[in-house]
C-alpha cells in the first residue's frame, strides 16, 4: 500500500508504484494525495515501460510468491523499464539460505488479543513452502493458506544476470552488512547491463 514509495516520494524522488490489488492502490493514493506519485493497478510481471526509470525496487513478500517462470518474467520486465546502469534493489525472506536453516514445523505468536499459529511444510522437489496461518480471536478461528517459492541465492543471482541485471551487492539487512547464510533477509542490488555488454 505504498509504504516505501511514499517515503521515497517525501524525500524528493518521483515514484510510480505498481500492485495488482485495487484495495492497496486505493490506500496508497489516499495516503499520497499531496505527493508527486503515480499508482498503477497491474501485474508486476507485465510492466509497460521501456528504459524509463533510473531505479526500481521490490520489497516485502511479492518476490516469494512467484515460481521460476514468474521470476524470469518479472526480472525481464524490470530490466526493460530501467535505463542502462539503472539499479534494482530486491528484498526477500525466501532465499533458501535464509529460511531453511531455522525453519520450524509449527510456531505460535501472540499479537495483542490475537493468537496466531504458523504451520510450515516444505516440498524440496518443487522448492515450495506451504504455510497455513491460523488466527484465533475471541473464540473465533480463521485459517489462511499460502505458498511461497524458495530459491538459493545463487539461483536468484543467476536469474538476475540472465535478465540483464548484473548483481553488484548482496546485503543481509537495510543496515548494510554483507549477506551470509542465516541472514534473515536477502537484499540484492543489481545494475542493468548496457546493450552489447557481454554477460
Structure write-up:
This protein has 199 residues and is an alpha+beta fold. It is built from 5 helices and 10 strands; from the N terminus they run H-E-H-E-E-H-E-H-E-E-E-E-H-E-E. It has helices at residues 3-10, 22-31, 68-81, 96-99, 153-162, and strands at residues 15-19, 37-41, 53-58, 82-92, 106-111, 114-123, 128-137, 140-149, 165-171, 186-192. The strands form 3 sheets. The chain has a 4-stranded mixed β-sheet. A 4-stranded antiparallel β-sheet has the order 5-6-7-8, with no helix packed on it. The longest helix has 14 residues, at 68-81. It is globular, with a radius of gyration of 18 Å. The protein starts with a helix and ends in a 7-residue tail after the last strand.
Shape, please?
globular
**Strands of the biggest beta sheet: in what spatial order?**
3-4-10-9
Q: What is the terminal-to-terminal distance?
A: 36 Å
Structural class by helix and strand composition: alpha+beta
Low-pLDDT ranges: none
Overall pLDDT level? 94
Measured as a percent range, the helix fraction is 10-25%
Largest sheet data: 4 strands, mixed
